[in-house]
């Protein structure tokens, strides 16, 4: 049993194949696929997809790359959507939210300030409703940590983690799990592989970020939640433990990070 804690199954790359892809993943042992929203426009899409697919759940949030096109009404719409979403057992988190300082224009004001404002406001929504977060953390670890220290949220996942050991320990200390996926499968990804092999077992969850971050055996083709078991095998090898034990502990950690997932 595996849990994909971050998969954009609603992306156009999967158009018309969503249920088939999720079904094939289920046959391979992927018991849950968490689909984060990226903008107000796909809140309904991810909820409907989760509702129509037996092994999918979803999160609602505004992705930092979509912040330039967003406005205050979108934040208000997100907050207004949460009470109804909480009545849906497939709704598990606020996400995908965070900061992206890798893209040059997003790291310059006024867009950097706007990113930080949207991130802060979405953390407040998560705090106010007692929900975990799915975090986009790209070259922004320390600033993300600054906001997490100010606005107390009940855990979640720092997805596609690629920081230092010190930063990893800081996220763990704040109750976050760290997401590992396709990047970990590349032999030259020395830092990510070291983190995956040496961090405490209870800090790690698995993800695909499909259709992105394809594992080494697929790159640069479309990634898929069907690849999660094989990605899990790589993690098992790095840690020197069995595949079954890896599936168990990463799934247990996912349910800790996303408690509503364990209630479905």
CATH-level-4 superfamily name: Metal-dependent hydrolases
Shape: globular
CATH class: Alpha Beta
Order of strands, main sheet, comes to: 1-2-3-4-5-6-7-8
Q: How does the major sheet shape up? A: 8 strands, parallel
Describe this structure in words.
- There is one protein chain.
- The chain has helices spanning 18-27, 43-52, 72-85, 111-129, 141-150, 165-173, 190-198, 228-239, 243-257; strands at 2-4, 30-36, 56-60, 91-100, 133-138, 156-159, 176-180, 204-206.
- With 264 residues, the protein is of the alpha/beta class.
- The chain has one domain: TIM Barrel.
- Helix 4 (111-129) links the parallel strand 4 and strand 5 (133-138).
- The longest helix has 19 residues, at 111-129.
How are the SSEs ordered, and which strands pair?
Layout: E1 2-4, H1 18-27, E2 30-36, H2 43-52, E3 56-60, H3 72-85, E4 91-100, H4 111-129, E5 133-138, H5 141-150, E6 156-159, H6 165-173, E7 176-180, H7 190-198, E8 204-206, H8 228-239, H9 243-257
Parallel strand pairs: 1-2, 2-3, 3-4, 4-5, 5-6, 6-7, 7-8
Key structural traits:
single chain; about 260 residues; alpha/beta; TIM Barrel
Q: How would you sum up this structure in a few lines?
A:
This protein is an alpha/beta fold. It has a single domain, classed as Metal-dependent hydrolases (TIM Barrel), CATH 3.20.20.140. It has helices at residues 18-27, 43-52, 72-85, 111-129, 141-150, 165-173, 190-198, 228-239, 243-257; strands spanning 2-4, 30-36, 56-60, 91-100, 133-138, 156-159, 176-180, 204-206.
């Amino acid at each position: 049993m595996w849990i994909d804690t971050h998969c954009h199954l609603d992306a156009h790359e999967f158009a018309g194949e969503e249920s088939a892809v999720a079904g094939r993943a289920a046959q391979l042992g992927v018991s849950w696929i968490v689909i984060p929203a990226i903008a107000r426009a796909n809140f309904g899409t991810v909820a409907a997809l989760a509702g129509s697919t037996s092994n999918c759940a979803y999160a609602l949030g505004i992705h930092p790359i979509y912040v330039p096109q967003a406005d205050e009404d979108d934040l208000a719409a997100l907050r207004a959507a949460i009470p109804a979403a909480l009545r849906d057992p497939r709704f598990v988190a606020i996400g995908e939210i965070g900061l992206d300082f890798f893209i040059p224009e997003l790291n310059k004001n006024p867009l950097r300030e706007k990113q930080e404002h949207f991130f802060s406001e979405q953390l407040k929504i998560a705090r106010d409703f007692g929900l975990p977060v799915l975090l986009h953390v790209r070259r922004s670890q320390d600033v993300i940590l600054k906001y997490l220290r100010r606005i107390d949220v009940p855990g979640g996942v720092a997805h596609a983690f690629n920081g230092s050991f010190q930063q990893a320990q800081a996220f763990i200390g704040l109750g976050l799990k760290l997401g590992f996926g396709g990047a970990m499968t590349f032999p030259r990804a020395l830092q990510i592989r070291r983190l995956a092999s040496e961090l405490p077992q209870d800090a790690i969850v698995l993800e695909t970020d499909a259709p992105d971050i394809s594992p080494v055996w697929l790159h640069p083709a479309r990634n898929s939640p069907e690849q999660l078991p094989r990605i899990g095998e790589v993690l098992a090898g790095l840690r020197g433990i069995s595949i079954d034990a890896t599936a168990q502990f990463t799934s247990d950690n996912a349910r800790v990070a996303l408690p509503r997932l364990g209630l479905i």
